[in-house]
Amino acid sequence: MKGLRTFCRYAASLRLPSLADLQPLHLANFVHLQKVAGLAPSTLTSKFLVVELLHRFRDEHKGTLPFHPWPESSAVDMAGGTMTREADARKVGLTPLIPVEVAQILFRHAEGILNRAEELLDVRDRGERSAFRDPEITAIRDACFYLIGVLTGMRSSELSSIEVGAGRSETKSGITFHWLASIEHKTKTGAVEYLMPAMGHRLLHIMERWSAPLRKRLAEQIVTLERQSGKRTAEELQWLATARSNRNRLFLGIGRSGIVPVTATAWGRNLKQFARAAGTDWDLAPHQMRRLYAYTFVRHRLGDLLFLKEQFKHSSINMSQLYSANPLQDLALYDDILTELMQYKTKVVAQWLEKDEPLAGGAGRKIMELRAHDFKNRTELIAETSRRVNMRSTGHSWCLAQDEGCGGSGIYAKGSCSTCHNGLIDSRFVPVWQEAYRHHKELLTDAEALGPGAMKRVNEDLAKAAKILTDLGIDPEQGEEDAQSTTG
């Protein structure tokens, strides 16, 4: 029953009325937390079996788990006790992350193709270009594939399953969500929906138009075979069944058996060619788009990037809120995001605990004092700290408040983070504080005309910026000169 106590403590930390209020994402988080604790597969299996029992005896008590915790799987599989699960984990762990500078090049290249798509399709529809063998026309499909992949986190098999009319929008609490329907094949979930930015509707429109000639030819081939008299062979029946299931698909190509959705192997070749056409030598592969999505999601959630601002409408996002917005979403995608989140946080915390890493802010000073202690297992310390510490970026500092903290006032009064016991400033934010120091020096002239009160405030903020830069090992005046020479 030790496993039951662990799970109930976890459920209690969520402050839910009862176990009946748990959502699939909560269970995914529980599994993730147990795994990162470094427990053996046998121990994990015993913990997860208890969760299955709560579902099995759901009829005995209305306050227990109303759904199976991991459909199409088992406690043993979730614990990593099968070879398939371990192989998948190794594959995900080895997926290289597309570098930011390469991702920018690829995105701009795809956007450039997208901006010419309507014009090229007009030419094609006038019969001046081939609908089936023109490289520039085919490039439209590959660009849309890449863009939808990095903007939704869909796998290549799910992208190839997108059909006509797959996009929809809905408004909840004044926020418009855009959804993209597909079929999830890997875990046999079936119909799922992915959150997409408003741009996704434009991509779907172009793909519906792009695929129209292929879908038309496929429909004609189906009709021709259906009208043939006589007994059909097993091969013909198989082709007919497959063709009927593909007739509304968008990402089509021409294979040995005719018009079919592009396979994962073919996408591997297409994306490498797409990357070369963009002018990079990066070895682009389909699953890297999902990894880039998870990485970007995490960076956005922690405030470093606002790449997903249009998509999620908020400067920070709670994944459980996102999941509750649509229970048909792919849970495995959120599991990938959680893994990426832990890896990123672990890297940040590891940097903080480096002996010579300068830190500023109240929390920064505490962590520098913490380094003086001797810990038996530094790796476990970093992992445990990463898991327990709530990290948020204000754009100029890390906020480690485990409650509401200052309520967000530090976002606007950045100087307050320098003395706040929840504030931590590391080398990532040096350029921000160099610019703040330069800006406040410029304000001194204006403040003098406004009176003593303005002068006092500007001087206080200038002193705070100078102290932070000094604590981070930067000479404020030298930093200003470097910044000016760089911009000059």
Automatic annotation (TrEMBL):
The keyword Cell membrane does not apply. Residues 113-336 form the Tyr recombinase domain. Coiled coil: none annotated. InterPro entries: DNA_brk_join_enz, Integrase-like_cat_sf, Integrase_catalytic. It comes from the Bacteria. Keywords: DNA recombination. This is Tyrosine-type recombinase/integrase.
